[in-house]
């Protein structure tokens, strides 16, 4: 364990102890008063190590709720609404997933908890932030005690401990998951044994009233205490159908956790404090603003480690390159000679190429034309789309063949660019469903041409379905099928000026 500042906060005071190499180097107690806050500020002036704040307060609330199983932002928003509903006035809150149900909608069983009186905590945290102390997290005794019962075989277990700074703590675990916890102040005139016997009966009835302990189920009780109190409690609390007792010597727990401390009474404060420092879990109640300086230190530490690793890698790479460079000198000289020969042969080949010189004026004109074509030459789809729309409006015209090309010799109409080739479409088709009504057929074709003209096209008739000129012969164009007559059009368009 490196140098660490351990803090234990109760309702009336803050206990601080500086740990150096796993041993207590300094201990101080600060009352919850303006004078105590001032003394704590002075105490922190010499602190440069990370700090862990452990709280043991009556004002810690636990609520178990079943919520729909969601993921991502929806889950975050749901949990935040629940926290605002339960603990609107406290920033010290958290959510813990107990389990996901195995049937039905498979909802989540969640434990919501919070320190409901932030006025007891905020002054101390603000002092640490003002002094830029690296606060690693804010933890609670009930939740830090879970590892002490994880290997216990009972599914319904009550853990009892006494912390001299706060009182008698009773934490109930159902199937190794924390359900509720109660803290009762213990006054000097009441012995540890009497306090346990008195409060144990109340807690058992409380669990039964909330249906947290199944009917007919025996409650297992694990009591952390000093060897002297252990003997007294064994005589006072024999096993019964309601409760079964497990008395644990606090000194033996200290040895198992490698805690260098001489236990003279049943005070379990050091068990929780030093276990927290040795195996800190994720912070219970601290948010990002509380752990700001610790996060900055972790980031700086990570950058330093990365920089060191990169420097070591660079030095190793340089050493390898230096070692290889001596053996590569001869090969490099051969490559240099080969490169010179290759360059000489390339120059000879270049001299055999014909001259491809072009005047700058011609190149400029070519570039200008290409830019204008890129700017004004639409894709065939852009030109054909209006023609397709016109065919939709004239269903008696059917397309037989269509050709598209660019043509710079097309006539220029006012308002269009003369130096950009025209888009020219050769349209071949036939009319249907007119029988022998040639006048209606010609009028229908003229309306189709007018529709294209209205869209900016120049339309030229190349072949009509019926030649009505003085030199034409009507009988020449009467097909064997009287309901289909061929025609062809030239449709052109230039970009507008």
Key terms:
12 helices; 2 domains; 17 strands; alpha+beta; 497 residues; Gyrase A, domain 2; 5-stranded mixed sheet
The whole-angstrom Rg is 46 Å
Multimeric state: single chain
Number of helices: 12
Question: What structural class results from the helix and strand content?
Answer: alpha+beta
Label the overall shape.
elongated
Order of helices and strands: EEEHEEHEEHEHEEEHEHEHHHHHEEHEE
The total domain count is 2
Biggest sheet: strands side by side, in what order? 3-2-1-4-8
Compute the separation of the termini in Å: 83 Å
Determine the strand fraction and express it as a percent band. 25-35%
Task: Work out the helicity level.
Answer: 25-40%
The count of DSSP E runs of length 2 or more, i.e. the number of strands, is 17
Largest sheet: 5 strands, mixed
Give start-end ranges of low-pLDDT stretches: 476-483
Instruction: Give the rounded overall mean pLDDT.
Output: 86
How would you characterize this protein structure?
By secondary structure, the chain is α+β, with helices and mostly antiparallel strands. The protein has 2 domains: 4-59 and 117-300, no CATH class; 373-493, Gyrase A, domain 2 (2-Layer Sandwich), CATH 3.30.1360.100. Helix content is 39%, strand content 27%. The protein is elongated. The model is unreliable at 476-483 (pLDDT under 50).
